[in-house]
Amino acid sequence: MMYAPSLLDPAAESLKLTDFVGATDVAREARTLLGERFSSVTFMYVLMRAFEVEYAAACDAARWHEFHGGPRALSDADLETLLAPWLVR
């Protein structure tokens, strides 16, 4: 399902201002902020808007294990490593 940026940008802005301890915190806060709109696609969008995460990295982040399982799923540790360059404060 597609969502207009106007529905997702407020979540991205809130996410940018949130105190977090790493990528897993960011992902869980995004899930809270987006509610029923939370998906791998909306997560990618808010990562790119809030933290200027590159598209390829955001695509990889969308494979986080809490979205789906499978052999290509990212663990929490993988997500932390992947997003660390963009989450430095």
Automatic annotation (TrEMBL):
It comes from the Bacteria. This is Uncharacterized protein. It comes from Amycolatopsis pretoriensis. The lineage of its organism: Bacteria, Bacillati, Actinomycetota, Actinomycetes, Pseudonocardiales.
